[in-house]
Amino acid sequence: MKKLLGDIIDNLYREKKTGILNIAMLSEKNLFKFYFKNGEIYYLSYAFKKGKESLNELFHKELRSVNFIPDITIDIKSDDIPTTEEIIKKLKAANLYISIGNEIISSTNQFQKIRERLKIALIKQIGPIGNRVLDKIIQEKWNAQLPPTKNDILKLVELLTDEIEEKEGKNEFQTEVKRFIEEVFR
Question: Which of 4, 91, 114, 156 has the fewest CB atoms below 10 angstroms from its CB?
Answer without folding.
Answer: 4
